[in-house]
Design brief:
Blueprint (H helix, E strand, L loop, with lengths): L10 E7 L10 H11 E12 L4 E4 L9 E4 L3 H10 L2 E9 L10 E8 L1
Parallel strand pairs: 1-2
Antiparallel strand pairs: 2-6, 3-4, 5-6
C-alpha cells in the first residue's frame, strides 16, 4: 500500500477497512500519501481501525495461534494522518464493540482529497 502501480488521480474512493492495522505506525503517513496520490480531487477515503495505543506482534486467539503485527490507533493519530496528508475530515466516529466482537472500540473516519 505504500507504493502502488496505479496512476495518479485515478480513483474516486478508497476503502481501508482495517487494512492499515497490520502495518507499523511509522509507515502510516506513507500509506496516506499514496492514498492521496491515487485519489482524484474530491475523492473519498474511508479508514476504519481499532482504538488503542499498542502496536507490535500479537498471537491473539483471533489469529488462531499465528503471530501477526497489529497497530491500534488513538483518535488524534487518525485525525493527524488525515490532516497531515491534505485530507479534509468529513466524518469521524468511535463506536463500542458489538457483543460478538473483541472488546475494543472502533474508529471510523471519512475524508475528502482537497
Amino acid at each position: 500500500m505504500m507504493k502502488t502501480d496505479f496512476s495518479d488521480n485515478i480513483f474516486g474512493g478508497i476503502i481501508s477497512f482495517y487494512s492499515i492495522v497490520y502495518t507499523p505506525k511509522k509507515y502510516i503517513d506513507r500509506i496516506f500519501r499514496e492514498f492521496y496520490r491515487i485519489l482524484r480531487h474530491g475523492g473519498k477515503l474511508l479508514v476504519t481501525v481499532k482504538k488503542g495505543e499498542s502496536e507490535g506482534i500479537t498471537d491473539d486467539a483471533w489469529y488462531e495461534g499465528n503471530e501477526v503485527y497489529f497497530s491500534y490507533f488513538l483518535e488524534d493519530e487518525i485525525k493527524g494522518f488525515f490532516k497531515n496528508n491534505k485530507f479534509e475530515l468529513d466524518f469521524f466516529d468511535v463506536r463500542k464493540p458489538y457483543d460478538f466482537e473483541m472488546n475494543v472500540e472502533r474508529i471510523y473516519a471519512i475524508g475528502t482529497k482537497k
